[in-house]
Protein 1
Amino acid sequence: MLSVHTNYASLVGQNSLNRANGDMTTAMERLSTGFRINGASDDAAGLQIASRLEADSVALNQGMRNVNDGVAMLETADGALSEVESMGMRMTELATQYGNGTLSADDQKAVKTEFDALKTEITDIMTKTEFAGEKLLEGGKLDAAIKIDAGVGRTVSVDATTNMTALKTAYGALDVADVTKVDDMLKTLGQTRADLGAGVNRLQHTANNNANIDEGTQQALGTIKDADFAVESSNMTKNQMLVQAGTNVLSRANQNTSLVMSLLG
């Protein structure tokens, strides 16, 4: 039917052209941003899931940084105690030397002077070692609840304070005339460093697990949110052709009204 008021062919052409142009614009937007979801209207449910996954990933990464802080704290303590251990080894040597009956009084005095200097340095290390501005060893904090992700109760507790009181007593009792006192300190020191090593190992495993979880989370997030460039490139090309074809067809459809005028002529 030829009609002046209603050009059905033109209306069909306009609708098809609008759809193709909209689809082409969407494909171009996805290609330019790299995301399949650029607004809630693209995939409302997917956006909600992606937002939750992204929040989980952010929390996991912060958790790994928290864990690394904990590892750094424990390794700082272990480094300090390693130096104490080295001095303890030298003190064992000095105490053994001090007990040698062939030494003169002056020789023993020289040995004791070095021994006492090392004991003073051990006291300084134990009382003044800090991490992030806070005392770490004696009178400090070698226990912490480290938050590893956003989940309620998702923390890892490390505690290397068990032997600190015994260690304080042991290094306070050091005596150049009694080598067994040095042996006692070294034994307690070894137990303390073992606690620190266990804490570091646990935290490192926690960090590895967080990295594995985040890898899976990122994969799921990418599947939902990222654009598939092969698909979107194909969609853009297809819809560019449809827009061109639709524009041509619409132009022809709009010429239908001229046929009415030819009938009136």
Note: The mean pLDDT is 86.
Protein 2
Amino acid sequence: MAEILVLDDVQDVGMMIQRILSRKGHQVHVYCDEEPAFEHARENPPHMAILDIKLKKMSGVDVLRELKKINSGIRVMMLTGYPTLETAKESLELGADEYCVKPIDINELEEKTEQILNKL
């Protein structure tokens, strides 16, 4: 299945995503800090990233921009508990495949992940 990188400033959210997607056979790597996530992406390019918009040091949009520099083919799903038209539009313009609102719906997460991975 797919290698998926998850970056969320709340570890419990990342672990929940990991549990859900691991049951589908995916290898899920969870990070709460941007630098280790970038290091992982450089050393082991994931197929997909799931990024929270609000992070500790950077915005998820900035992380998206950096990940696309590391691997232009990476597929990305953005997550936010604070949806705005501006961040959705900017994320999609930078190459995000999907935009999901928290709290995360398990079925929506599974379906959107499969849709994104089917584009590979």
Note: The mean pLDDT is 95.
Protein 3
Amino acid sequence: MSGGVRLAGTAEFAAADAPLDESKAQTMLEHAKVMLGETPHITSTWVGSRPSTPDSLPVIGPLKRYPQISLGFGHGHLGLTFGAVTGQLISCAIQGEPGGVDLEAFAPERFS
């Protein structure tokens, strides 16, 4: 972040290709003005899709039909937070070791 401060923090239910809602960016800018004591210079705005699962739980574990393939995704805004734990759980599952967590609730096939 040597080039400045990044403002982020909104989420909404919208189509994957929905355009940026400028009013949300303006709201964040107004809050930044209060916190920083000055009007920040905006260099760019961005919006992107962050798909989520219907039950809000991540998908973690091997595919039953193709057990050589393991999945670990769907952490929403907590991907960096839970990425290492998910990697450890998948590693244990691949090696047939207990990982300390029953992965059934996170099974990829739970939606079929």
Note: The radius of gyration is 19 Å.
Protein 4
Amino acid sequence: MLIKKKGRLTPSMEDYLEMIYRHCTTQGYTRINQLADELNVGAPSVTKIVQKLAKLGLLNYQRYGIVQLSEEGESIGSFLLERHMIIEKFLRNIGVNNTLTDTEMIEHNISADTLRNIHLLNKFFEEEPTILRKFNEFKDLTEMVEDYS
């Protein structure tokens, strides 16, 4: 979990910051209604979290205006998206079908050391695709044997 000088980012705040980062990398900004639609929540809920993130110095936000990341918010948002992608890729590598649900559950509770090692394992699988293929063959074979048990 990320710790800020002025307070702790909750999993919900991390999700909002990650989504704001996603929007800002393509558009340079986002709006409350865009976030509400994307996160499937009401605009008042988004406004509340955005105001908290702005108080932490992670966003620039004016009521009824656009939402933009501060330099620090951009840095943290980048990390949050990278963390999400590392975990999602690992889950796809090991054959998890619904990666979004599991990624969301894991990403807020993973240690830096575990994340670093998962990232290295993902890179290893990229450089040694035969190892990943062997794992998938082993997994398929094990599942077939278990089906006949």
Note: The chain is about 70% helix and 5% strand.
